[in-house]
Amino acid sequence: KAGVTQTPRYLIKTRGQQVTLSCSPISGHRSVSWYQQTPGQGLQFLFEYFSETQRNKGNFPGRFSGRQFSNSRSEMNVSTLELGDSALYLCASSKIRASYNEQFFGPGTRLTVL
Amino acid sequence: ELKVEQNPLFLSMQEGKNYTIYCNYSTTSDRLYWYRQDPGKSLESLFVLLSNGAVKQEGRLMASLDTKARLSTLHITAAVHDLSATYFCAVEQYSGGSNYKLTFGKGTLLTVNP
Questions:
Q1: What is the reported pLDDT for A27?
Q2: Are B27 and B51 in contact (CB under 8 A)?
Q3: Shortest Cα distance from B70 to chain A (angstroms)?
Q4: Could you tell me the end-to-end alpha-carbon distance of chain B, in angstroms, rounded to an integer?
């Protein structure tokens, strides 16, 4: 069974540009969550999508947005990039069930903003 | 709002020694997960704990859950260098249907020295 995939794996952008990251969840998983990880702030929750709806959102500015498609694939977009957006962006998927909802993580996209 | 606190945040230990990482959380939950992250890599699921008194073991790692104390422990026995990584606990809040939220601790950076 294929795991969570994220593309691209590495990205270099300059300040002011925008970027789109993609995440394909494990087959059958309908919940997709995004996290930002930096050495200073650690692992921070961005948002969670289920059935194309954003259900939970972390404390990030509106420059960070996302969406989910009908096949559960998800994208996140960061506009007007700042140096501080340099981070590892992780996507995690979960198969929603009443018993438990373990998240499985993709390899991440490492974004560098110059 | 659920708060998840791990301690210690940094742990340097010698090979062959035992130690415990603690994960405290602020509201009722009987669903807790432990993850491992190697430097530059993504998070890998280690343990799923789903009831009071649950204990899981894998090699030199053993995790337990006390829902009444709102506490989980990750015990390391006879540490070896390969266990050097960052360990995260995550607590799930499930409110029925498809509604769940996972809150992560800040992580414990474990370094095992020869």
A1: 95
A2: no
A3: 17
A4: 41
Listed as own residue / partner, the contacts of B38-44 with beta carbons closer than 8 Å and 24 or more positions apart are B38/B85, B38/B86, B39/B85, B41/A107, B41/A108, B42/A90, B42/A105, B42/A106, B42/A107, B42/A108, B43/A90, B43/A92, B43/A105, B43/B88, B44/A105
Quote the CA–CA distance of A52 and B98 in Å, as a whole number: 13
What is chain B's pLDDT, residue by residue, as a tens digit (114 residues)?
Answer: 899 999 999 999 999 999 999 999 999 988 999 999 999 899 999 999 999 999 999 999 999 999 999 999 999 999 999 999 999 999 998 888 778 889 999 999 999 998
Average pLDDT over residues A8-36: 97
Q: Greatest CA separation found in chain A?
A: 44
A43 touches chain B (CB under 8 A): yes
Count of A–B CB contacts within 8 Å?
54
Q: Report CB contact under 8 Å: B94, A42.
A: no
Residue B94: per-residue pLDDT? 85
Q: Which residues contact A35 (CB under 8 A, 6 or more apart)?
A: A43, A44, A45, A46, A89, A90, A91, A92
- Tell me the C-alpha to C-alpha distance, in Å, between residue B44 and each of A37, B38, B89, B94: 15, 9, 11, 22
Question: Cα–Cα distance between B51 and B55 in angstroms, integer?
Answer: 9
Q: What is the mean pLDDT of chain A?
A: 95
C-alpha distance from B17 to closest chain A C-alpha (Å): 27
